[in-house]
Specification:
This protein has 542 residues and is α+β, with helices and mostly antiparallel strands. The protein has helices at residues 19-28, 50-60, 77-86, 105-116, 164-169, 183-193, 217-220, 223-240, 245-259, 272-289, 292-296, 300-310, 314-327, 459-462, 528-534, and strands at residues 7-13, 37-44, 65-70, 91-94, 100-101, 120-128, 161-163, 197-209, 332-335, 338-341, 370-383, 386-399, 405-409, 439-444, 449-457, 467-472, 475-478, 491-493, 498-506, 512-518. The strands form 4 sheets. An 8-stranded mixed sheet has the order 3-2-1-4-7-6-8-5, with helices on both faces. Strands 9, 10, 11, 12, 14 and 15 form a 6-stranded mixed sheet that branches. It has a 3-stranded antiparallel sheet with strand order 13-16-17, with no helix packed on it.
């Protein structure tokens, strides 16, 4: 090892056998070569075989691997800081002791940093064993990515290459009193102060492993610990970046991820005191950092939950979580050109939340515009010489239907029924449908509006599947359609002289899918007899 290696890899170790073996193997076998590499592993008071494994690698690779020991500190921050004090490389790289690297990772990362004079390089990460890793940052290589208008705030782990001069100039270290997320203040400040941040996306540099026993520290922390750590991180951001769009761009991640996760299906099961303390802590953060822009840019489900938490409406909040877990999104109430998600607390004077919290603000939501939406029938009708599939739907809408449009769309799910590549039926070309071609009848019944829609489906669409959308109040909503007990009839495509079987079913996401397939593939196949029975008979010539 030279006096100044290119990169120092820092590994904080606590009870990570057998994963530690693969981690260390991936380091000593790096293509960058041992003369350019320094590995400093800090044993944070392990009680399994991790210490013995570290010694084995240090004995086998004495020029590369250095092992330090200390009593258990309760997290990766203290051992990472101790290793930083000993590092000599031009760059430093942090790896979890249960994770591992691609063989060329360090060589490629250092080359990228040297080529573009980058202070921080984020190499592509993937999850292993069900570990979630946000992927949008790795869409392409980018020599100069911004912290404020890119997905980088959603990828704040310290598993990146950092120029050590930057780290030492600003004395960047990990807060040792944070059991969760201690890498985020370090990473955020390094990115704020970096002259250039690059992304290396065309090679998998880092494999993030979820242990089989789910003992990663992130998965063990309770609600209050996660809340306290997130508050510290957000306060740190506020100390680095003045209020405004840039700060909002950073803090949007914490509202969307860390804080939203405090209000998931496990929230109602917490004891009353813990729920109250979570809501009080959230209220402080909402008052300090949840700007109008962040509020209006938050999806209606999260917006309502934050609003209920901030107002201290524990029971309404718990009911919102349990109701959605049991029954899906609530019905929407339509009022002119506005749509509201009728979550608990809507227009409840005891809660006192403004309608704005419940309003659907131009987002595509998998909500329930309708209750009891179902396929009434799907049948083949003869129109002159044309045989076509006609789908009849019934749904109930809470409110009026002045702006209601039902669309059938083929292909991948669009953000909107008007997105390029989507096919709208009818009126996709801007013209009204032909009389009798597409109809829906809406009648008020005291509980809302009952809608009966009749939609013919072109044969080309029927072969590719059908999805049902409703456009209302300027937004597009997908409506799951129940098809139980609605078998499809046999249909004959006499233009091809081949009968087809037609089936309707909901897929795993609840979308109506209609498919067609020929009953026979060849006249000599197993369906030959059926084909002969069904084919049109020809008159014999005399």
């Amino acid at each position: 090892m030279t006096a100044c290696p290119d990169v120092t890899v820092i590994v904080a170790v606590y009870n990570t056998m057998p994963y530690l073996t693969e981690c260390l193997n991936s380091l000593v076998k790096q293509s960058i070569g041992p003369e350019r590499l320094e590995v400093i592993a800090v044993d944070d008071g392990s009680t399994d075989d991790s210490a013995r494994e570290l010694d084995r690698f240090a004995e086998r690779y004495p020029a590369v691997v250095t092992v330090l020991r200390q009593p258990n500190s309760g997290g990766p921050a203290a051992p990472s800081n101790r290793a930083l004090d000993k590092a000599t490389g031009r760059y430093v790289f942090f790896v979890g002791s249960d994770d591992h690297l691609g063989e060329e990772a360090l060589e490629r990362l250092v080359a990228c940093a040297d080529t573009y004079e980058s202070d921080v390089v984020a190499g592509r990460m993937v999850g292993v064993g069900g570990r979630y890793v946000h992927q949008k940052l790795y869409a392409r290589n980018d020599p100069d990515v911004s912290l404020y208008d890119s997905p980088l705030p959603f990828t704040l782990a310290n598993t990146k290459l950092f120029r050590r001069d930057l780290v030492e100039k600003h004395h960047l270290r990990f807060p040792e009193d944070l059991p969760v997320g201690s890498d985020q203040p370090f990473t955020i400040e390094a990115c704020v102060r970096a002259r250039r941040i690059s992304v290396l996306a065309d090679y998998i540099c880092y494999y993030a492993v979820k242990r089989g026993d789910a003992s990663n520290i992130t998965y063990r922390a309770d609600h209050l610990a996660r809340l306290r750590c997130t508050a510290r991180i957000m306060d740190h951001v506020a100390g680095l970046v003045p209020a405004g769009p840039r700060r909002d761009a950073l803090l949007a991640r914490h509202f969307a991820w860390e804080l939203s996760k405090l209000l998931l299906t496990d929230f109602p099961a917490l004891d009353t005191d813990t729920r109250r303390r979570v809501c009080e802590g959230l209220s402080v953060l909402l008052d300090a950092y949840w700007t109008d822009a962040l509020r209006d840019g938050t999806g209606v489900k999260r917006r309502v939950r934050f609003g209920l938490a901030g107002s201290g409406a524990l029971e309404a909040l718990s009911r919102a979580v349990t109701d959605e877990a049991a029954s899906g999104a609530p019905p929407f109430r339509l009022e002119g050109d506005r749509a509201f998600a009728v979550h608990p607390g809507f227009r409840d004077p005891g809660v006192g939340l403004d309608d704005r919290y419940y309003e659907v603000l131009g987002e595509t939501v998998a909500g329930r515009l309708a209750a009891g939406t179902e396929l009434e029938s799907a049948d083949w009708e003869q129109s002159g010489e044309e045989l076509r599939l006609v789908v009849r739907l019934r749904l109930r809408v809470v409110g009026d239907v002045d702006s209601l449009v039902v669309a059938l769309v083929q292909g991948a799910m669009p953000q909107s029924a008007d997105r390029a590549g989507a096919r709208r039926l009818p009126g996709g070309d801007g013209r009204p449908p032909a009389p009798g071609d597409f109809t829906f009848v809406a009648t008020a019944d005291g509980l809302g509006t009952q809608v009966h829609a009749r939609v013919p489906v072109p044969a080309v669409l029927a072969t590719k599947g059908v999805r049902v959308y409703v456009d209302v109040a300027g937004s597009t909503y997908e409506i799951p359609v129940r098809t139980e007990g609605r078998p499809m009839p046999l249909a004959r495509r006499w233009g091809e002289a081949v009968p087809h079987r037609v089936a309707a079913r909901p897929n795993t996401k609840g979308r109506l899918v209609i498919t067609t397939a020929p009953l026979v593939e060849s006249r000599n196949g197993p369906g030959t007899r059926l084909w002969r029975l069904l084919r049109p008979k020809r008159k014999r010539s005399r």
